[in-house]
Fold this sequence. Notes:
Bound molecules: ligand C2E, calcium ion
Number of domains: 2
Strand order of the largest sheet: 6-7-9-10-11-12-13-14
CATH superfamily of the largest domain: EAL domain
CATH class of the largest domain: Alpha Beta
Amino acid sequence: MKKPVEILHVLHHDSCSSALDYAALMELLQRNFFQTDPEHIRFSILFIEFYGFNQFYGYNENLLERDQLLISKIGKKLSSALTENDMLVRVGDYQYIVVQADIPERVSSELARQIMHLFSEPCMINGDMFYIYTSIGISFYPDEGTDLYALIKVAENKMKKVQKNGKNLISTVQDSSILLTERQMELKQALPAAIENGEIYFLYQAQYSQVHQRFTGAEMLARWKHPAYGEISPEIFIPLAEQNGMIASLSIKTLVAASKAFIVLDHAHIDDFSLSVNISPVFLLTAHFYKTLQFLLQEYELNERNLHFEITEEMLLEHTDYLLDILHKIKNLGICIEVDDFGTGYTSIRQLADLPIDILKIDKSFIQGIDTDKKKHDLLKAIVSMAEALNMKVIAEGIEKQEEATVLQQFAPLTIQGYLYAKPVQLEALVEKIQKLSAGNGNTL
Length: 445
Ligand code: C2E
Ligand code: CA
Ligand code: CA
């Protein structure tokens, strides 16, 4: 079988239009997959579409050149995820088909996830940064049909469905119910009981304020201690909770845990300390969100607390009217609103100014390597001065190296969160760390 890149090249030249050249595609498939015993062939078709291409900074005037460079970059990146047994065909401007032969379903799901991961990082072209969204639908031969044309349509329709759903869910990039592996299905089923049995718990990652020269808050990060699989990352189980409706119970658990943590902090005489909770957009957008929140704040006496909600920047781009209303309501309850992963979306200054936001939390991709990357440095400078103009605070996250911390010291108003300063730890360890520091030298590092 030919290498993916070669086939990509062939079809690209065969079909000059963006329309899918089925005849050429069929011929390729027939040639590659039906040479031997068609009865025993198994393969899957991944229908992939890239979209978005929103620039974060810089203006490249030449759109044609931009498109050509993007297409070439996408092709190269995509090929890098494939083996020479996979077939890659470009079927539209930003649409591709990958055919994987003789593999179990989960392998294709894994490849799809890998591709999404590859494209989750911004792409640099001529100094401009682009965000590319990826949607993938998969169909399986012969389980979902033996007619090639129909199978491609099945994959394409699945892709379109994901794209539509993705916009309303947490992640347009990675969320897809059709991409669940067997393990994930199992975890999804086990999650309700896990929430009930206390297998989900929280770690606390302290945040250091350069202004106050002390730890002024912590982010709560969920963990699942699974009896068989050990520790499971929130990046795996939060999307599952969002899909099976468990996210509300999980969010309630988080707020109850926050209320208990505030009491522990009180007893340890740790005052003026905030707790930041990650709020899933799926929970935020449920009809009962506000009533549930009001109830919880009263029931667990969180009203008087220094509670922060982290809402991802991606979320701000959707549901604008409804979201604006709900954000104002949250703020009126005395909760501080943080924009998480700031910089990974592309909120305009206008949008930011219109929203009741208190804190911008800059994504770690902008912080890591800031000591060697001048562009990141300039970007941070711009964000800090923009935040100042909008009367917002800024948190930088993901600081792992002393060199990065040294650069960040130039930005006095910043609050800092990262492994270098404090790793996510159990509440007792957080209390101990803060007490030790304040006993020693006034809680400074
Ligand atoms: P996030 O909100 O962006 O959280 C920051 C993540 O970066 C955390 O990963 C944290 O452990 C990690 N991190 C902190 N400092 C550093 C550093 O210096 N270097 C590096 N490489 N990483 C650092 P974690 O705990 O695995 O959480 C991953 C994501 O899962 C979170 O990303 C958040 O989106 C989600 N998540 C975690 N807990 C919850 C929760 O209770 N509810 C919801 N809805 N989502 C949660
Ligand atoms: Ca967060
Ligand atoms: Ca973040």
